Every structure is written in structure tokens, then in C-alpha cells.
Amino acid sequence: MNRTLMWAVWSVAAVASAAPKTLVVGAGDCSGVELVTGLTDFGVALRPKLKADLYEADVVLDIVRPRPTRTLDDVQRQVESARTLFYNGQNERALDLLKQALSELERAPISGEPWKVMSQALTLKGVVLLGLGKKAEALEAFRTVLRVEPAHTLSKDDFTPSVLTQFEVLRKELSRVKKVQLQVQSSTSGADVLVEGRLMGVTPLTLSLAPSSYRLLVRAGDRSSYLRVVTVPREGVVQVDLEAEGALATQAPLCLNAKDKGAESAALKLANTVTADDLILVRREGPRSTPGSFVAARYEIRTGSVVREGRVQAPLKGKPAFPALAEFLLTGQGSSLIVTPDAPTSMVVVEKKPGAADVVVERLAEAKPPETTTRAADLPSPPTPPPPPPVVGGSTISAARVASFVMMGVGAGLAVTGVVLDLQGDSVRARYRALLQPDGRLPDPSLPAHREALGLAATASQSRLVSWSVLGAGVGVLAAGVVTLLVFPGTTSTVAVVPGPDGAAFSWTTSF
Prior knowledge:
Elements: H1 3-17, E1 22-27, H2 33-50, H3 57-64, H4 72-87, H5 91-107, H6 115-131, H7 135-148, H8 161-175, E2 180-186, E3 192-195, E4 198-202, E5 205-209, E6 212-220, E7 223-224, E8 228-232, E9 237-240, H9 242-246, E10 255-256, H10 260-273, E11 278-285, E12 293-300, E13 305-313, H11 321-331, E14 348-352, E15 360-364, H12 399-424, H13 426-435, H14 448-487, E16 494-500, E17 503-509
Parallel strand pairs: 1-10, 1-11, 2-9
Antiparallel strand pairs: 2-5, 3-4, 3-6, 6-7, 6-8, 11-12, 12-13, 14-15, 16-17
Helix pairs in contact: 1-14, 2-11, 4-5, 4-6, 5-6, 6-7, 7-8, 12-14, 13-14
């Protein structure tokens, strides 16, 4: 592959990796059918315009609140089935069933306190692994239990003396490990703090944890925070805005039980959490059981500023208001159905189209200038225009020369940015290499380090792709600027017209 083609591929990859993601969130009474229906219809109108750049509600909810596919009771029965298989000597089948159960428990809302089932599944997994001769994996399963619940005990009726002895040895081992202080604070004091689904205390709370990764959630009443994965000892303080995070409803479409500035703050926080580029916040105005109207504002997350805002009358099914609102928010192209805050007048006229009594259309009343009366004598005399000066053309720098300077500047800036981004990724790559085994393989899948290593590998790969793409694009643009500078002339044609008493003199000069 030649260099030019490589630069082109890098440029396309950089654009693809930087594709914007737009998050759509409603705000208000999320239990109201009018708001939910309007949000759904607006999403249908927006999806063909954004396609893959639209953040789907299910994806967002899985990021901040992973949802299981089975109930906790179903998982409990699955663990019991695995226990039966183990007692019957079918260790491999029992292990497969336990892995499925633990995977489901990792998605279970830890606000439901699934720790009891998870600890049973982990201890049984450790016993099964011991039976299969996989001692290192078995001990890690036991350690996971003891990190969250140091006082956890095993029943003498369910476990053999050798397992009980090994478990106690691990307990003493972990008791000697230096603990790390993790402070959990929330905007609502007295909120429950749960780690891996186990209630640990109320905020403000200081936890003493052994180095590892933990799932953490804070709840107060019917509100709960986003699910966090905290890594000890790299995180010492966790701040939770329970009002903002707890406002998010648990079902699609995405909706916040909040109003005014509280809704705006909660929506921007959610957009930042899922790393969206744009946010569209939709509100409904008007009492229940009436069509009302919908106000939508588009925000740029990087600056937190409002890009565009419009309002439409809540349409009946099949009416064009939502597609028009979507087009306006994305492109700025107006419509008679859209009312904007910066309209020339605040008067809104609601009218019905002839022959269609059930179609409600909003338009702006025409703004009329104030009527004034001025006498001709009060007007100042117009100034006498000066004689026209000679029109003389001069040499000017060519557009190609200006474009070459611009391209060289942009190319140099992109190249420097690519180098900086590549250097910033060194820490991630160093951490990834530190997690690898001596032979270069990933840690064992049963270890928490395996999941962390996979995440770091993906992050490092994406970072390297982006940095090289930006660097390649910068070098390509810089080269194009140099070529333009060398090939095209520095000045343009010059035309001069000089008026005289008997006519005008005309001259034309150019450069090649």
C-alpha cells in the first residue's frame, strides 16, 4: 500500500471512530402516557436521520443499569441445579451452569441485594474447580467472596473439611492484606451503599477494601444511582449525585422524572456518562389528557451549550410535526410547524387547515414594524456623492496560495495532535502489559484482572488507531499544502481601469 492510500485509509478511520453519538432523553412525568408516546414517536422520526449515530435506549440503560434476562429466583434455581450436578459427579456441566448464573448475576440490579445468591454461586464454583484440579481458579472464587464479606462462613454440612480448611487459610491471608480506604458520599445523606449487591452501610461511608474491582450502587427510597465499577486503590472518593442519577426511569424510552434546571443537569450528566456528543432533551407542556406541545433542545456536550431549540404542537398519529422538529434540530431548516425562542415575535397563532378540521398547525404571526410619521422637512439632506476615484487593480495573492498556507497549518496541527494522543496512550498500554502473564497471555478468565485487561486492550487499540489516524491525516494534508504551494502561482490576474477626460484606459496583466 502506497503512502497516499494509507493516509486516505487513516483519515477515513479517524472520521469513523469519531462519529458523533446523539442521546435523546425526555423529562417530566415519565409515568404519563402523553410524554412516553411523544418520546417514542419523536424517536421514530429521528432514527432515519441519525441511523447508527442515535444512542438506543436499551444500550444506554445497559451501561448505567445493566438488566438481567432472568429473575433472581430463576438464577437461584440454576445454582441449585448446578449443586445437584456436582453431587452427581458432573463437574463440567455444573461449572458451565454456574458460569451462566454468575454472568446473569453480574447484570442483576444490585439494589435487589443479590449477594446471597452470588456468594453461594461463587463458593460452589470454587468447590467444583477444586474437583476439576483447577486450584488457582478455585482460590480466586473464594477470595472474591471474602473481599466483599470477610466474615463469610461455610456450612460444615455442605462442604468437606479440606474445603473448610482452605477457606480459612484464605481468610487469614486476606486479613493481612493492606486495606484501602474508599469514601462514598452522596447528595442525599443516609443513602444505602451496596457493593456487589451486599449492603455495606449508609452515606457518608468509608469502606476498607482489599485491592480489586467492585460494583457499587447507592440508593435512597425509590431512587438509585448508576452502577459503578470502582477499582481500589486507584479510586479513593466516590461522589454520587443521587437526585440526577436517580431521576432516570428504568424502562425505555429514556426519561427523567425531573423538571427545569434539574432535568437539564440530569440529562447532561447522563450524556457525559455514556460519552455522547450531542443531547436532545424533550419536554412536554400542557395538562394531561390534552395534546399539549413538545419543546426540544439540542445541546453540544463538549461545551454544554444549547445549539438549537424549537416547539411543536403535539401531533395526532401520522402528522408531520415530529419529523419537522427532528429536521430543524439537526440541520436548522425551519418549518411553519416550528416555534423557536428567537422568533421575531412571541405571538403564536393556532389555526386549522381548510378541509382538515383535526389538523392543528402552529405558525408565527408576522411581525409588523411600528408605524411612524415623518415630515420631509425633518429629513436631513442627502450628502453629495464624491466623484468616483480611478479604478485601479493590483496584484493580489491567489486563492491557491492562501489554501496552501491553510492546509499546511491544519496538517501540522493534526500531526502534532496525533503524536500527543499517541503519547497519552502509553500509560494505558503500560498498565495492560503489566497485567499480562510472563508468557504474554491474558490473565485467567476467572480473575478480575482478565476483564480489566480486555478493557485496557480495547482502549489501547482504539487510542492507537485514533492517534495514528490523526497523524496520518495531518501528514497528508500538510503534503497537499506543500504541493499546492509549489504548483500554483502566488498572484492572480490584475485588471486596471483609469477614467480620463476623453474616455478610459484599460490594462490587464497576469502571471503564469
